[in-house]
Amino acid sequence: MNPVAATELLARSATLTSVGWIGYIIIGAIAGWIAGKIMNAQYGLLTDIVVGVVGALIGGFVLSFFLDTAGGGWWFTLFSAVLGSVILLWLVRTLGGRGA
Fold first, then answer.
1. What does the pLDDT read at residue 4?
2. Does Ribosomal protein appear among the keywords (predicted)?
3. In angstroms, rounded to a whole number, what is the distance separating the alpha carbons of residues 66 and 11?
4. Is 61:93 a contact under the CB 8 Å cutoff?
5. Contacts 24+ apart (CB under 8 A), 42-46
């Protein structure tokens, strides 16, 4: 991957909102918990936070192709984090993770 493509990938995956790091952790925990309920996966709080924060990056990346993700707030960040978390849990299950 060339440096320009890598920079664009990172820029697309970072949802630029005003929630801050503590907000991302809180939203990550909520999104990871919601995604766990949707995907019927039982994990602990720390895993929910990690899945939610990584899911927010995935969701922000996917939605950046269709929407202006920089204008989002708490609710948009939560929506994109849940979407990305569901995608992440699906990928983990598909690739042979423990999942349930």
1. 57
2. no
3. 15
4. no
5. 42/100
Residue corresponding to tokens 């039982």: 42
Quick: pLDDT tens for 75-94: 888 888 899 999 998 988 88
User: Quick one: tokens of 15?
Assistant: 């949802």
Q: Secondary structure of the chain in the HEC alphabet?
A: CCHHHHHHHHHHHCCCCCCHHHHHHHHHHHHHHHHHHHCCCCCCHHHHHHHHHHHHHHHHHHHCCCCCHHHCCHHHHHHHHHHHHHHHHHHHHHCCCCCC
First-to-last C-alpha distance (Å) of the chain: 34
- Please name the residue that has the structure tokens 């969701």: 59
Question: Global pTM?
Answer: 0.72
Asked whether the CA dihedral 15, 11, 64, 40 is positive or negative, the reply is negative
Cβ contacts of 57 within 8 Å, gap of 6 or more: 13, 14, 15, 84
